[in-house]
Amino acid sequence: MFSRVARPQNANAFGQLVKNFSTTNVANRKVAVMGASGGIGQPLSLLLKNSPLVTQLSLYDIVHTPGVAADLSHINSAARVHGYVGPDQLADSLKGSEVVVIPAGVPRKPGMTRDDLFNTNASIVANLAKACAENCPEAMICIISNPVNSTVPIASEVYKKVGADPSRIFGVTTLDIVRANEFVADLKGLDPAAVNVPVIGGHAGITIIPLISQATPAVSFPDDQLKALTERIQDAGTEVVKAKAGAGSATLSMAFAGARFAFSMIRALNGEAGVVECAYVRSDITEATYFSTPIVFGPSGISKNLGLGKLSAFEAGLVEAAIKELKGSIKKGEDFVAKM
């Protein structure tokens, strides 16, 4: 069971993170965004550019990146921005990077599941992972590209193929936590910036497991309301896809969540102790070889995996249901790389 004290520091979100590091402990950190011209990549890059935690921002995509970089470079914040476009500039975009955030890929459309994105996004992530392994093997790799349940195993297998260490590869599931915090706060009349709900498992459908019993501050719901809340958190991505009526998927909220994850990683690299985020990583916590749990970040990536904590009977049932789904997604990713 992990301590409530060690949970992710969500209070005041970006404002607090920026305040904490506006004058002290700011290291020279280079962050690369792969897929920087896309619906997630542009707002994510804006948030990173605005943070004093980032002093070099490298933007890569297959189109439009010089324009995005030029636009961002006019903002009067410390980070220096460089844009790279096309396969010929991929290697240069990654050299010297300490944190790489990967939102590259095609977005979901109405009627699509994250798994429907597999064939296109699997190839994109595999190619980017190979470039990372060859050009910045010590960097922390933060994968947003869906389906995360498969793309993280893909990146890890690519790293193994080229002889790089895959222990610094993380699946970004932070949007599930952000959503859970907001939905719980709304139901209970709380400040959403002061709520923290750990979300474990994976990042699709029934593999998304919000641990309402471990929320801070402590909350409780009748069984029927708890079931409805859990299902809303699990299906929140589809809620956005439907609301956008074919115009895209969750981009702004995902950019917020991706930036939060990157900032937490940089804080840990800068030596801050006790930085915790849930992340989808290779794990022996359950029968699934990849599983999201609260992770204590450190200068080398994973300092400690805090595990599942004490689960309610309802949550234990959710974990059991998620394992089979996760195993299938993991195998699909590993098989993809084996056939490359």
Automatic annotation (TrEMBL):
GO CC list: mitochondrion
Assigned protein family: Belongs to the LDH/MDH superfamily. MDH type 1 family.
Binding site for substrate: R108, R114, N146, R179
Residues of the active site: H203
Record flagged with keyword Endoplasmic reticulum: no
Catalytic activity of the protein: (S)-malate + NAD(+) = oxaloacetate + NADH + H(+)
This protein's record includes keyword NAD: yes
GO molecular function terms attached to this record: L-malate dehydrogenase (NAD+) activity
Pfam families attached to this UniProt entry: Ldh_1_C (PF02866), Ldh_1_N (PF00056)
Record GO biological process: malate metabolic process; tricarboxylic acid cycle
Keywords noted in UniProt: NAD, Oxidoreductase, Tricarboxylic acid cycle
Domain Lactate/malate dehydrogenase N-terminal: 30-171
EC number: 1.1.1.37
Domain (Lactate/malate dehydrogenase C-terminal) ranges: 173-337
Superkingdom to which the source organism belongs: Eukaryota
Quaternary structure (record): Homodimer.
PANTHER family: MALATE AND LACTATE DEHYDROGENASE, MALATE DEHYDROGENASE, MITOCHONDRIAL
Ligand binding (NAD(+)): G35, A36, S37, G38, G39, I40, G41, D61, N121, I144, S145, N146, M254
Gene3D superfamilies: Lactate dehydrogenase/glycoside hydrolase, family 4, C-terminal, NAD(P)-binding Rossmann-like Domain
Name of the molecule in the record: Malate dehydrogenase
